[in-house]
Model the fold of this input.
Amino acid sequence: MRYFVLALAAVLSLAACQKKSEPAPAAAPAPAPAAPEAKPAEAPAPTAATTAAATEPGNSIGKVVAIAGNPKVSRAGGETDLKKDDPLLPGDRVSTADKTRIHMELKDGSVIKMGRKSAMVLNEYSLAENSRTGKITPETGRFWANIVKRMGTTDITFDCPTVAAGIRGTTFWGDIDEVDAFCSLEGEVEVKSKKNASLAPSKLTAGNCAANTKAGKLDPLAPKEDQVKGFLAEFDIP
Done:
């Protein structure tokens, strides 16, 4: 009996040792952290190159060919002096002070001259294979324009404060403030009053003008030769 008890005790002790030596089951691995949510790609910030692209000479509608004094251009919210050969861009506002004049050549060879104390916006000037369109807005002062003849259709307007003049291939002169008249020097110009919509347009042939436009009129005016020479001398650049 004693031997049986001792043997049983030995078996139980051995079983206990075996149970302690068994490794504990491995813990389940922790879940991997969630990947951060992707943010939508942001548009790249404008660079100096992209900002300047719209003002490169390749986008020009013409250039400065002669100056006297210090004509200026307002562009992209700033104002700067113009020099000979500077490009002219759509939307440029060109202005002259006293004793200042400027000659500009458009990309089809047409020429616009501005006298003293004048301002003009070059809104647009586009050429296609069989067409030409443009809008020029003289604001103050006086101007002379030779729009060269060209094959195809032409739709160019000088949108002055008191009149709108349709140009097809013409030499045209205007004085907005002092003389208050617009004249054809070569070819035909159709002038419409912006002050009096009921007034029929006036078709001006060479040597004829429309005057008193501030009063909503297009009174005929035929200046004498010496008067025309005086008008044109205003634009001379030595």
About this structure: The two ends are 143 Å apart (CA to CA).
